[in-house]
From TrEMBL:
Region (Disordered): 198-221
Upper classification of the organism: Eukaryota, Metazoa, Spiralia, Lophotrochozoa, Mollusca
UniProt-listed Pfam families: BCAS2 (PF05700)
Keywords recorded for this protein, A-Z: mRNA processing, mRNA splicing, Nucleus, Spliceosome
PANTHER family assigned: BCAS2 PROTEIN (PTHR13296), PRE-MRNA-SPLICING FACTOR SPF27 (PTHR13296:SF0)
Keyword Nucleus: yes
Record's keyword annotation contains Nucleus: yes
Species name: Aplysia californica (California sea hare)
The protein's name: Pre-mRNA-splicing factor SPF27
Protein's gene: LOC101853498
Localization (cell): Nucleus
Biased composition (Basic and acidic residues): 198-207
Stated family: Belongs to the SPF27 family.
Length: 221
């Protein structure tokens, strides 16, 4: 049948894998097969063309260009945290002072939010962290259980393969022993038949000589 695989090796039973030259011979066979195999069809033809720029943002593109150009990274801007006064030429400008006030109010609100977050973390952070650790622990336990199950299945498969191959090897050994015995018996039978044929031929020759002798004696008398 097409695609049928015939297994002609029993690794758990066969001997001689460690003999000198066996590994080199196997590698030579693999290399020969690799040289003869030249795929002519792209096995990824059914997939769409890969798009490597779909998830790139402008910031990512700019950062990649900076890295490619070997330019230093820009320092973190602290301007948003400063409270500058209006420039010297706008000290009497109400709009400039209003902008400074808006900036100070925004920073004050930012600091208030930071304080609020610190208070929330102080009150609920420990419990949230313990809950998060509990979730991680459960995930680790599940992963370890899954890993143990996989290892157990792998071990069972290996034991099953070893048992099946050992049984098959013993059967092959018995069949080989039986074959050797049958071949030996056939050889003995053929040799016995040859000896019998030789004896029959010799006896026929003796009978023929006796017949010729009697005929010769009768002719003389």
């Amino acid at each position: 049948m097409a695609g049928e695989v015939v297994v002609d090796a029993l690794p758990y039973f066969d001997q001689g894998y460690d003999d000198p030259g066996v590994k080199e011979a196997a590698i030579a066979l693999v290399e020969e097969e690799t040289r003869r195999y030249r795929p002519t069809k792209n096995y990824l033809d059914y997939l769409p063309n890969a798009s490597y720029h779909t998830f790139e943002t402008e910031i990512m593109k700019g950062e990649m260009e900076r890295v490619q150009a070997r330019l230093p990274m820009d320092m973190m801007s602290m301007k948003r945290y400063e409270l500058p006064t209006p420039p010297a030429g706008k000290m009497t400008d109400v709009a400039a002072w209003q902008e400074c006030v808006d900036n100070s109010q925004a920073q004050l609100e930012h600091q208030s939010l930071r304080i609020l977050n610190l208070e929330l973390m102080s009150e609920y952070g420990a419990a949230s962290w313990r809950s998060y650790n509990s979730v991680l622990t459960n995930m680790i336990d599940q992963a370890q259980k899954h890993l143990q199950d996989l290892r157990k299945k792998i071990q069972e498969i290996n034991w099953q393969r070893k048992t099946e191959q050992t049984q098959a090897g013993e059967k092959l050994r018995d069949l080989e022993t039986s074959w050797v015995g049958l071949v030996s018996k056939n050889y003995e039978i053929e040799r016995a038949c040859a000896e019998i044929e030789k004896e029959i031929s010799e006896e026929e020759q003796k009978q023929a000589r006796r017949g010729r002798k009697r005929q010769h004696e009768s002719e003389e008398s």
